[in-house]
Task: inverse folding
């Protein structure tokens, strides 16, 4: 992803610029981006829940 690319925080749904994210986490060899530590911690407790929600949107 380029620096000006957008991504979505899977926990709160906020759209984020990749170069401005507050936290990242690698899970099953994929990097996820978060608006802050609160969303990151929620994701870490139940990552499959948030990944499943995202896949259902597709």
Result:
């Amino acid at each position: 992803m380029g620096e000006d690319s957008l991504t979505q925080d899977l926990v709160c749904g906020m759209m984020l610029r990749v170069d401005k994210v507050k936290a990242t986490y690698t899970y099953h060899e994929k990097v996820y981006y978060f608006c802050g530590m609160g969303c990151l911690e929620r994701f870490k407790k139940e990552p499959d829940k948030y990944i499943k929600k995202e896949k259902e949107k597709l």
Remarks:
- Residues 6-57 form one domain.
- DSSP finds two helices and four strands in the chain.
